[in-house]
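Record minuted for completeness.

…
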Amino acid sequence: MGRITPDVLGRWRDARLRQVSAGTVLRELGLLAAVFEEARREWGWLDTSPAKDVRRPRAPDHREVVISRRQIRSMLGEMGYSPRLPIRSVSQAVAVAFLVALRTGMRAGELCGLTWDRIHDGYCALPITKTVPRDVPLTAKALALIEQMRGFDDRLVFGIKTATLDALFRKYRTRAGLSGFTFHDSRHTAATWIAGRMKSTGLPAQQALLDLCKMFGWSKLDQALTYYNPSAADIAKRIG
C-alpha cells in the first residue's frame, strides 16, 4: 500500500476511463480514497493518502429521462404481462418489478432483495439499501401488483436476481425497438409521477417535498431536483 503513489492512481484512472464511464471511475476512486484514509487515520499505515492528490474525472451530467406510457406499454407487451394472468415466467416477474418500481421508486437491487416478511399493510421495510434503511409506502395499486407475485417464489417477492432483471430488461427493450432508457430510469419516472400526484391532492409544497425525500431515501432536498424531471410543456400547463 505504501508503494501506491498519486502517479500510480492517475495511470489507473486513465486506464479505467478507457473501459468504463466517468461515473464508475468516480465511485471506484471514492472507495479507494476511503480505504487509504482508513489506513492512514485508524491503522497508521500511511502518512498521507495518495488519493488526495489525484484529479477526479468530471462528473457526468444527471440523467433526465422519464419513461413514457407508450414505452411502458410496449415493454409490458414484449414481456408477456397481463394484469389478468398469473405470473408464470421470469419475464413476467420482471414486468411486475418494473411496474412496482414505477409506483414506488425502488431500485432494482431493493426490489430483487425484497422478501415476503418485509411486506406490511401500507408499506414495505428495506433494511438494506444503497444509502440508509427505509420504509417505502405502498399504495393499494402497488400492493395489488405485489400480490400478483404470490406463489412465484416462497421467500423473495420477485424471485429474480438483480443481474437477471437488468439483462432481461435490456433484452425486451431491444425487442420492443426501444432505446434511451434503463431500468433505473423508472426511479426518475416514479419521482416525477408521484410528485405530480402529491400536488393534485392539495398537500402543501413543503410537506410533499419532505414526503418524497423520505420515500426515496434522500438525505438532501436538492436530490429531488436530480430525479424530478417534468417536461417544460407539463410545467406550462400547471402554471396556466
Notes: The mean pLDDT is 88. The longest helix spans residues 22-41.
